[in-house]
Amino acid sequence: MLNKKFNNIYIHYIIYFISILIPLIVYYLIFSLDKNFLNISKWVYILPHINVLINISNSFVLMLAFFCIKKKKVIFHKRLMMLAFFLGFIFLVFYLTYHFFLPSTIYGDINGNEIFTKKILNDIRYSRIIYLLILFSHILSSIIVTPLIFLSFFYALTERIVKHKNIAKYTFLLWMYVSITGVIVYIMISPFYLKI
């Protein structure tokens, strides 16, 4: 019993460590890594377009999993949630890869040179505020939902169904929000992505 309790605590620490590590890696890739020396392959430019498809797919998978569990179709729910977890992992790999090779796209930066004329700034000021608000809420929600996803899966895999249910309802809502706002952010920023 003591060994099992120790393992549970250990797993929780691993979950929290990974949940802190992921945003730190993203921060480093976006703000600290000098990308001037990297040789950029053309396939990297397509990753945001693949990731939006992953986000859309994940939204549908999460909804299906939600409906399955409401209908007591536990096996289908488990399979769909494993698929959602896998899609989330693939998204993260592609996202990190993209930001390893390319600088972040800035809303309104038409030429990719970070130079804004007064006309451009005037034309995009309201849409940029909306974009930044959605982006900020998306980033904050993705940071919050990461440990919740891991904990939900941990409780489900260890058959602690009460704990799983208690945390899964919040996880589902936040995960859906992250997936949907990810699509919105993509739609808003896509005109400014660097072209091949």
Molecular structure report:
This protein has 196 residues and is an all-alpha fold. It has one domain (2-192). The protein is 78% helix and 0% strand. The chain starts with a helix and ends in a 7-residue tail after the last helix.
Please give a quick description of this structure.
The protein is mainly α.
Topology as a string of helices (H) and strands (E): HHHHH
Mass-distribution shape: elongated
**Mean of all residue-level pLDDT scores:** 86
- Structural class, from secondary structure content? mainly alpha
Assembly of the depicted chains: single chain
Number of strands: 0
Q: Total number of helical segments?
A: 5
Backbone CA Rg: 19 Å
Number of domains: 1
Strand content: under 5%
The biggest sheet amounts to: none
Distance between the termini: 58 Å
Q: What is the fold's blueprint, element by element?
A:
Blueprint: H1 2-32, H2 47-70, H3 74-101, H4 118-157, H5 161-189
Helix pairs in contact: 1-4, 2-3, 2-5, 4-5
